[in-house]
Amino acid sequence: MEGYFVYILAGRKKGELYVGMAKNLKKRISEHKNDLRNGFTEKNKVKKLVYYEQCDGKKLAVLREKQLKKWNKSWKIRLIEKFNPGWKDLYSDLNSVIAVKPNSVQTSASSG
Question: Domain of 16?
Fold first, then answer.
């Protein structure tokens, strides 16, 4: 899996959410799962990969991450449930699942 990714982690269904961005998604999620970085995900036990999408380059990934961070929680939950209705941990599927690729990154939080 190449490129940049924006992802959402959850502690439990409809619980705490964390939005992040990474070039190496599998490595970054592993870091979250194994508490290799201090911060929100470690403190709040937010380790379940419930959504991710691939972006065309770092610039677009940063824009998309910022966009999703501005969204209210209900919008993020709708996005997750459209992509992953069972809130399954997608980490083990990273080598076999094709990432969602948005048509274009929109800069307005109200667009989604």
Answer: 4-102
**Do the domain assignments include residue 14?**
yes
| Sheet containing 4-10: order of strands | 17-22, 4-10, 48-55
Cα–Cα distance, 41 to 54 (Å, whole number): 21
Q: Give CA–CA dist 111/97, Å, rounded.
A: 26
pLDDT of the chain, 112 residues: tens digit per residue:
568 999 999 998 999 999 999 999 999 999 988 888 778 877 778 899 999 999 999 999 999 999 999 999 999 999 999 999 999 999 988 876 544 555 444 433 444 4
CATH of the domain at 84: 3.40.1440
User: How many separate domains does the chain show?
Assistant: 1
Helix (H, G, I), strand (E, B) or coil at 47: coil
